[in-house]
Amino acid sequence: MEKKLEALMDQKLLYSLPVWTHKNEILVKLLKNFPSIQFVSLVGVDLRGNNTDEKIPISVMLDDMETFLQMGVQTDGSSVMLHEIATLNNAKVDLVPDLEVNWYVDYNFEHIHQETGLPIGSLRIPAFLRHEGKYVGSRGVLARVEKYFEKHLIELFSTYPEMLKEYGLESADEIESVKMTTATELEFWVRTPQDKANEEKLSTSQLLKEQYWKRTKGSVRSALEESMMMLNDYGLEPEMGHKEVGGVTAKISNTGKLDHVMEQLEIDWKYNTPMETSDNEVFVRVLVEEIFERYGLEVSFMAKPIEGVAGSGKHTHMGVNLKTKDGRLINLMAPKDRDKDFLSKAGWGSFMGILQNYEAINPFVTSSNDALKRLKPGFEAPICVVGSVGHNPQNPSRNRTILLALVRDMNNPLATRFELRAPNPTSNTYLYVAASYLMMLDGIEAVAKSNLSAKELEGEFSKPAGEEKFYLDKDRLFRSEQDVFDDYTEEERNHLFGTPPATVWENISIFEQNEEKKKKLFKGQVFTKEIVNSYKIATIDQWVQEIAGRIIHQHTKIIRNCKKLHGLEYVTDLDVVHWEKINGLRNALMKDSLEKKSLISQWREAIEEQNLEKISRLQLTIGEQITTLKKYYLEYRRNLMEE
To answer: Which Pfam families match (predicted)?
Structure first.
């Protein structure tokens, strides 16, 4: 340990503090050795995924290290998303440092420490939110699932030891620990500030496949390269940074530099435990934003920042390994014979568990207006609750049109894992990963009780819609190796896979209707009724407030901008017809009369009345009308000579 400590202290900048450094005497040595680290910030994460950032002088931590590490600091929890938990009359929340994960130093390269000439640093310590003695934030939920998953899985193997035979194990006593692994792929858009998106050009570029995997240039290239290098400095082991499908070619300005930048990128780094992966993502987002900003570029982690163009996903990989007492590492999902089977019995159970219970996972995956805009046919974003394992066991294939995919490497059984394709950059990784692992465990338990072989379980999973099985819903189809978008009509998709929720309210309503699936979240007290209720209230509140304060304004701006353009120079009957259709739509959407209120006025009334079902219904109707209005107006402008 002395050598490792010396190696850390010899660095010019201290980037990360691994778990072994989280001892009083080591921390004091390190922090005094790096005087440019002037602040400490405890990073708690509320139920909507917002993380705290406060500037506490590092001297506060150094003056009473033991108390700081054990007790953290008190704060006001009524201003974060802990609805009906931390209330105005009971708002005290403790931020308690997590000593079991890596900590990072966040450097401000625009603020230099005078004595050392180095950037000012803030030690960011992931923390739990504790209210009335209970961990109530997102990190608390995920911490509980990590412990429960390991404990309950070993209990299942003790009860059903025959499950272990395909791994070459005789009993659960041979298992030392269970290692859960998770990784996310972070997509985002970058652009020159104030530039407006030309949807038609972006859509054309996407159809022509002009951007995906293409070479980055100029400031985008520099920022991407620096981001990857910084990830390496922080020990996050970056794996790839590249262009995604969205974007248009930038232009060269008068200064000789690229201008009018609008591109979609992706950055990936190595898997870790679910908690470390979620913490790392929180840190990486801040890091990427600040690096690109130094190059004059604006970063957006919205799921669908531009209509009509590919949104940004956050494909999430989840796996499980067993570590045996004799030092072996065994992938829980990989079958004994990879040429004959896709998955082990526990693997099939895990895969089916996520899909069978997705109604209880989806509210944590897709919980905003922006997120639902991304899940549309034609943009490689999943719209159906269906999975793919491949065409045959010998040749792993990847179906990019489904929700849950099996990822395999025939030469490396440890790489076997699942890819959940629905999450987006705004999804709360802590919560949807926790819910997914709970449902994997539910499926494993069902499979253990069934005593079916891996081949029989493949048959169960591949069942046609309408066939009764021991675990999966009778009326649904769960496996498709076809293109879900092209090989099924919308009617067929809805019939076979279920009609996907179109609004936040629909998603929450489906969740509430599936009471038996919802109850599975409470196993092991991972989620509690209070936490689920708080999350639901916060999600609905955010949905309504965004409609009232942002979306209605955006729609009215579009309506007002659809102005009459044709003059008297040369007007055809087609121009007149176009304008009459446009103006009729404008009036229906926004113009009240004595006899009838416009759709937007009705929407405002529904918000005032808190009529959630009506708000949801009008959101869909008005959204469709706005899309039609934009289409009509584009056709109208194309026919005008003066334009």
So the answer is: Gln-synt_C
Give the tokens for residue 527. Answer: 């989620």
Closest CA to 185 of 318, 352, 51: 318
Q: How far apart are CA 456 and CA 302, in angstroms?
A: 42
Please report which helix (H) or strand (E) contains residue 384, including its range. none
Give 3-state DSSP helix, strand, coil % of the chain, rounded to 5.
45, 20, 35
Q: What is the DSSP letter of 479?
A: B
Print burial letters for 101-137: b (CB count within 10 Å at least 16), e (below 16): bbbbbbbeeeeebeeeebbbbbbbbbbbbbbeeebbb
Identify whether the C-beta of residue 432 lies closer than 8 Å to the C-beta of residue 361. yes
Q: In sequence order, what are the beta bridge partners of 263? A: 190, 247
Token couple for 45: 């994460």
Residue 562 CA from chain centroid, whole number: 35
* Distance from C-alpha of 627 to C-alpha of 585, rounded to nearest angstrom: 11
Distance of CA 330 to the CA centre of its chain: 28
Sign of the alpha-carbon dihedral angle for 252, 253, 258, 260: negative
pLDDT digits (tens, 9 = 90+) for 227-254: 999 999 999 999 999 988 666 565 555 5
Which residues neighbour 518 within 8 Å (Cβ) at sequence distance 6 or greater?
A: 359, 360, 511, 512, 532
User: Is 349 in contact with 335 (CB distance < 8 Å)?
Assistant: no
Find out whether 338 and 344 touch, Cβ atoms under 8 Å.
no
Instruction: Give the containing element (helix H, strand E) for 616.
Output: helix 612-638
